[in-house]
Amino acid sequence: MTRDFNCKYCDIKKMTCFSYLSEEDVKLLNKTKVSTVYKKGQAIFHEGMVPTGLYCLSQGKIKISRIGVDGKEQIVRIVTEGSLLGVRALLSGRKYTASAITLVDSTGCYISKQVFLQYVKKYPEISNCMIVMLSTLLEEAEGKMTSMAQKPVRERLAESLLILNNVFTTDPVKVESDDEQVPITLSREDLANIVGTATETVIRLISEFREEKLIAVKGRNIILLDIDSLRKLGKVFY
Question: The domain containing residue 229 runs over which residues?
Fold first, then answer.
């Protein structure tokens, strides 16, 4: 479902590489972009598709995932408001190597390749912003690769919960708790696909973490109770 969101009044724009645009170019962006409301579980793009532009996530949460040779999904990362999707594939001229699927009802704006490259050429700041963004993604990918290769599942789960806690911090949905912490709301299957293990293993470890008072669990919601202990367990020192 498409809707009209005015770029001039968009707070998310300030969080992206488009914050450098002049007022006139913001008007052009608003005129040419297409805003879409995506339902939970809907794909924004699929692995193997050819990119024709990029997407700016203005609201919601998206999982970026790949399908392995065994047909099993591997969630590469979860992105939130202010993220630009599909940049690497668009700039490299290659097909998407992963799919973008909504975890909750979300809103995204599509910017065509022609308009985007026009801005990149006109604003060196946007190019620099893209370099920083891609470098950050590469650093995160290297960190996850090292974690998958060197850490056992229990440590990887602790690390993943800490990362997800940061992702869900901006979520306005809360559960009933004394400190009103924002919960991590994710299916056990998705959590397993992030950690890189079987769903049954994640369910067992979540139960162990709860018994050890590291987390609290209410349905699909997970609240971190002892972040320091989770850091030590996951060997997270940053």
Answer: 151-234
Q: Cα-atom radius of gyration of the chain, to the nearest Å?
A: 19
- List the structure tokens of 156: 């990887």
35-84 confidence digits (pLDDT tens): 999 999 999 999 999 999 999 999 999 999 998 888 888 999 999 988 99
Tokens of 108: 């995204």
Total tally of structural domains belonging to the chain: 2
63 and 132: one domain?
yes
pLDDT digits (tens, 9 = 90+) for 86-128: 999 999 999 999 999 999 999 999 999 999 999 999 999 999 9
Query: CB within 8 A of 61, min separation 6: which ones?
Result: 78, 79, 80, 102, 103, 104, 106, 167, 168, 171
Name residue 56's amino acid.
C
Give the span between the Cα atoms of 100 and 98, in whole angstroms. 7
Closest CA to 23 of 2, 42, 7, 11: 7
Q: Which of 162, 183, 187, 164 is nearest to 172 (CA)?
A: 183
The residue among 121, 147, 173 that closes a domain is 147
Q: Are residues 46 and 85 in the same domain?
A: yes
